[in-house]
């Protein structure tokens, strides 16, 4: 269970409140208007931002003051955050050895297995610049797989891909998350993503990240804030 307990965040004039829990293993979309605080919510969970008050807990353990690398969360950004001068094996190896040390045979095997799992077998020695956008997304997902954390947070990860490829990647995320038994938080501007991917949806609007609601129920009878955002 991921719990945001009476979390209050503020920076400048922006405020965000969150007070809800999500069960382990769920797929959750995070939707809402631009600037509402979707990325901020993920940052609070991942530890890149600190709440002014309240607590963040994973399986009942208070992680509010843990640094990002000590949290149970793997984050996948739109930019994918690969080092351009390192090939895929070395980029992904950093998930297992953040100090950049040489990989042992077993670790190398794990990297190769992860690359195969996301459809990149045989591309071990490519650098990120020699990959298409879709392949870069796959590589980023392979890293998430290697990190093997119980929560995966994705912030608009596939916005630059075409619709068919995006759907394919979301299916792969779902499969990878299932392999890991991971909870997924997916920020997206596309209601189709939420409906196709997520069992539950968190609506972020008017200074609040609202408790998750079953996705189909939310979209079939949207509250005013969601209706305004959807333009319906
Ligand atoms: N360092 C900062 N100082 C002041 N305000 C900030 C700072 N960083 C972000 N904000 C504000 O916080 C609010 C929430 O930003 P956030 O990126 O979380 O929104 P979002 O819902 O993810 O938006 P988008 O969909 O456009 O990516 C915005 O109104 C933004 O202007």
Automatic annotation (TrEMBL):
Record domain ABC transporter: where: 2-231
SUPFAM superfamilies in alphabetical order: P-loop containing nucleoside triphosphate hydrolases (SSF52540)
InterPro entries: AAA+_ATPase, ABC_SmlMolc_Importer, ABC_transporter-like_ATP-bd, ABC_transporter-like_CS, P-loop_NTPase
GO function terms (MF aspect): ATP binding; ATP hydrolysis activity
Keywords: ATP-binding, Cell inner membrane, Cell membrane, Membrane, Nucleotide-binding, Translocase, Transport
Protein name: Thiamine transport system ATP-binding protein
Organism: Salipiger aestuarii
Lineage: Bacteria, Pseudomonadati, Pseudomonadota, Alphaproteobacteria, Rhodobacterales
């Amino acid at each position: 269970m991921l719990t945001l307990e009476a979390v209050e965040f503020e920076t400048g004039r922006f405020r965000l409140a969150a007070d809800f829990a999500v069960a382990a293993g769920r797929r959750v979309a995070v939707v809402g208007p631009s600037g509402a605080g979707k990325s901020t919510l993920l940052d609070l969970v991942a530890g890149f931002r600190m709440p002014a008050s309240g607590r963040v807990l994973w399986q009942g353990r208070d992680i509010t003051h843990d640094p990002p690398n000590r949290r149970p969360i793997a984050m996948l950004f739109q930019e994918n955050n690969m080092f351009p001068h390192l090939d895929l094996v070395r980029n992904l190896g950093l998930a297992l050895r953040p100090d950049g040390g040489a990989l042992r045979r077993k670790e190398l095997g794990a990297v190769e297995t992860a690359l195969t799992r996301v459809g990149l077998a045989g591309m071990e020695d490519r650098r990120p610049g020699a990959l298409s956008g879709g392949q870069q997304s796959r590589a980023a997902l392979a890293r998430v797989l290697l990190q093997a954390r119980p929560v995966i947070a994705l912030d608009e990860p596939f916005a630059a891909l075409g619709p068919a490829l995006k759907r394919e990647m979301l299916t792969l995320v779902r499969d990878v998350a299932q392999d890991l038994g991971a909870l997924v938080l997916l920020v997206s501007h596309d209601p189709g993503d939420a409906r196709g991917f997520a069992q539950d949806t968190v609506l972020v609007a008017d200074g609040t990240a609202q408790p998750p609601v079953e996705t189909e129920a939310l979209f079939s009878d949207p509250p005013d804030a969601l209706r305004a955002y959807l333009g319906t």
